[in-house]
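Recall from the previous chapter that SMILES is a line notation for molecules. Here it describes flavin-adenine dinucleotide.
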Amino acid sequence: MDSYDVSIVGAGVVGCAIARELLCRRRAAPIRILVIEQHERPGEETSGRNSGVLHSGIHEPPFSLKERLALEGCRLATAYALEHDVPLLKAGMIIAVSMEDVRRGLWRDISMLWRLWFNAWRTKTRVRFMTPSALRACEPYLHACCGIAIPSVSVIDSHAFVESLKTESEAAGAEFAFNNRVIGVEEAAGSYLISTDRQQIQATCLINAAGLYADDIAALGMSYKKYVISPLRGEYYELVTPEKKRLIGRPVYPALPRQAIGKGIHFSPRPNGQMYLGPNEMPITDKADYSSRRTPPGLFVEALQKFLPSLDERDLRWAYSGIRPRVVTKSRAKSDFIISVDREEPLLINLIGIESPGLSAALALAWHVCDLPSLRSRFPSA
Ligand SMILES: Cc1cc2nc3c(=O)[nH]c(=O)nc-3n(C[C@H](O)[C@H](O)[C@H](O)COP(=O)(O)OP(=O)(O)OC[C@H]3O[C@@H](n4cnc5c(N)ncnc54)[C@H](O)[C@@H]3O)c2cc1C
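With both inputs in hand, we obtain:
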């Protein structure tokens, strides 16, 4: 049986980023790390099924981990992409209020802009208030009466990002066990005995970055269920009509009230020129249910036609969906990222509820985990 210092469950963006960061810090005195992944490639689940937006964090609750790590992670990921040739659309982002909303009396949307403005001011994020003429100058086809622009936001090719992190961590010495699903975790002589459907390995530290299944892996490591993840699907349609898909050049989000669950169905352009609309919010019970009872395209047209009146159902083609690993809290309030040392001996670190902006935050999240005193004391940086 192979023995490792650290085993990370999950080769999504977070697991790969942690493996890379741990090894980069310990070039002089390497440790053995194994990343265990149930699929045959990295980033096959949520990390490859999102909007790819590197968020600034200003949408998040003030002083939350989500806010802090997205702010820092967005900067790190942008620099990483430029340095490693990961495709990036550097166009900024717009949060817009449509004329239709104002006509209908939804002026409260404007107070949402002020909340974001205030968050931006507090976190020293550069934003611009957009008048109708400023909006026309940067997005001539967008029908909106005002908005704010966040110039630091980019869109990253999330598959290429995860693949690059995996390649870098492999080059630094990490090993990957693909097509291995973790099915058991036992404690044995101060280590974890980790069983997959193919092999058993031993590790002195277990880092649980299993995304949607992080609650199940945590329960295996602790022998009781402390966390509950309830899946919330987000679906996307692709805008395929050639003369329409280039009408909007950057992510355009609606201004939503504070209590909204997500950031809203938006125009979601990608670095390769494709344009998607989504994601919506569809509660599901099966964490692997990516496509049953698909929401019809009309809902997506309805959400965005106010910004682009020529949008029609015939312009859309079903594309894909991603599933948010939402943590159920007693108050039903929005939960923060949970990064918790749940056992010291042997060390178990659980990352739970890493929903949006987890892609943006990944590199900062990896720093945060590697800075945890429990991990640093076991593997001091050389
Ligand atoms: C619709 C949608 C849109 C989003 N948009 C954005 C966005 O624009 N910007 C942003 O910053 N964030 C966005 N996010 C959030 C972001 O995608 C996630 O926060 C991030 O990808 C989480 O990465 P992860 O590595 O924690 O999880 P995952 O990518 O889910 O990785 C976990 C891995 O663990 C593996 N695994 C699970 N169980 C086992 C097991 N038993 N054995 C072995 N392997 C296992 C899985 O196969 C998976 O590969 C979005 C999410 C969704 C759903």
